[in-house]
Amino acid sequence: MNPSLKALATAAVLCLPALPLAAQSLVDEPATASARSGSPDYILNHPKALARYLHLSADQNTQLQALFTTLQTSVEALRQARVPLCTQLRADLAGTPNPATVGTDSIDLFTNKEAIHTARQTFDTAFSAILTADQLTRYNALKQIANFDNGPGTSILGECPPPAS
User: Tens digits of per-residue pLDDT, 80-130?
Assistant: First the structure.
């Protein structure tokens, strides 16, 4: 065996243990990144991705940014208000719960969840109004794939943060 072939064989043998790790990182990273950045949920929740996906004009993009900022501001305030509502319900469920108090807590949480849904619907209606027919068709298909229009559901505590330890 000539010296250069021997050196190549030695290098290959020494690199074999690292090969599975290198291959795994090459497989996982692009797949994970594309799954995140190319998924319907990602596109619907990132205005730049949505603008690219729908091929929005500059004016439409400006309007989208304003609508999305308004949505984020509204939803963030409602999510922050949800924390004390969840804490109150958990506290009222401890010991011997008063059904009227627990009922009021539950209604407050449901009302909060409905307000988040209403904010999303308001965004959706305003955003849909600025789209062309083709863009609207693509947008509605994207929402359907992502189950975006599923609504708030029935789980009141499902979106509560975990209790403080």
Answer: 999 999 999 999 999 899 999 999 999 999 999 999 999 999 999 999 999
Measured between its terminal Cα atoms, the distance across the chain in Å is: 67
Torsion of CA 44, 158, 121, 135, to 10 degrees: 20
Q: State how far the alpha carbon of 105 is from the alpha carbons of 34, 118, 161, in Å.
A: 41, 20, 15
Q: How many domains does the chain have?
A: 1
Global pTM reads 0.68
Of 120, 39, 58, 150, which is closest to residue 128 (Cα–Cα)? 120
The DSSP letter of residue 137 is H
Confirm whether 45 is domain-assigned: no
How far apart CA 95 and CA 105 sit, in angstroms, is 16
Asked if 99 contacts 89 with a C-beta cutoff of 8 angstroms, the reply is no
Residue 64 maps to a domain: yes
**Structural domain of residue 79, as residue ranges?**
57-159
Per the listing, tokens 């090459």 go with 26
Identify the CATH number of the domain in which residue 84 sits: 1.20.120
In a domain, 28, yes or no: no
